[in-house]
Task: inverse folding
């Protein structure tokens, strides 16, 4: 099984948050294949860099660009539509960004690792919430 690092994890890794790094370490040992990220994780992380100085931005881009980005497909769109319809019909509010992330993780049968408790709402998603 392969881990997908959510934006919340990427930010804490970039900040060198020792607590998160230590928690993450045991999962990386359990799932040693290189972690991946979704299109939305890359977008959110990159968008957060817009106000950083150029020198720091290049260093951080080097970090984020080491990760393989999962591709969006027609199947992703189908998973996304199914999830959005299901949770909208249940009156459960989930951001479109989180649904896109979940759709890519579900489609590829991966595990999302995150700090974001909003992902608890998505029952179909394999996840580890630190």
Result:
């Amino acid at each position: 099984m392969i881990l997908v690092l959510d934006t919340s994890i990427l930010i804490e890794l970039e900040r060198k948050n020792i607590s998160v790094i230590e928690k993450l370490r045991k999962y990386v040992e359990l799932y040693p294949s290189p972690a991946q990220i979704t299109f939305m994780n890359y977008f959110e992380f990159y968008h957060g860099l817009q106000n950083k100085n150029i020198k720091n931005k290049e260093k951080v881009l080097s970090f984020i660009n080491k990760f393989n980005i999962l591709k969006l497909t027609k199947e992703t769109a189908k998973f996304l539509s199914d999830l959005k319809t299901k949770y909208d019909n249940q009156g459960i509010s989930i951001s479109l960004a989180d649904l896109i992330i979940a759709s890519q993780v579900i489609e590829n049968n991966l595990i999302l690792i995150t700090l974001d408790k909003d992902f608890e709402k998505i029952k179909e998603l394999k996840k580890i919430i630190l």
